[in-house]
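Reading a protein record of the kind used here takes little practice once its layout is understood. The reader may check this reading against the record printed directly beneath this paragraph.
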Amino acid sequence: MSRGGGSGLSVPDPIKLTLSYNLSFFLRFSNEPFKSEKMQADVGNVQRSFDSVEKTLPGFTWNFLRGFMERFGLKDSVDIEEMSLRLSALDNEIPMYSSIVPHSHDLEKYAAELKLVLSRIPSEIPGRNEFIDLIKQIAGAIKNLLDCIHSILNALQQGVIRQDLDGHMINFVDYSKRFSSALKGFFRDHKTNELYASANMLVQQTNLILLFIRNTR
């Protein structure tokens, strides 16, 4: 599973595992070598397609899987917000690209770290001490990302790019405050719905920042 830093699988685990399982199932009962080779090639193309789209549209796989669950009625049997949050760090491989935006690689790294710690909320929330420690890690990850954005803004000249990035930062700060409010609500009523939803919105805003940076060349 890719956890950022440029290592790990290039295709998110759920998709790769599903494709591999269906391919192995087909090959088990196929006696036609040509079809088998073509199927293997098609699966490879699908994997590369997801990888390629993710590099241009960060969060695509996350949105795809979330939409898939909603489209096929899985929200009746699965907590969509929780599942989305657990999946949010699966697309964290940091792509290599050139950008006119300074410190873009640092921003990629801090964004991946933030999405990773946010994705751990459902796993850590049952243990109070572990969850409190995770909250501190999330706060640190948010600060690191904001500090990096400030460094980028300070390095950019006045213009459209700086103005647009500043707008993204303002939205990110707003969603960070909403997440903080949701945390306070959780400690009052111990309900996870609002907390998971606000964490997912913070993930989405992080992906929008990455989208802006990756497409500013």
Notes: The chain has one domain: 63-214. The CA atoms of residues 175 and 217 lie 27 Å apart.
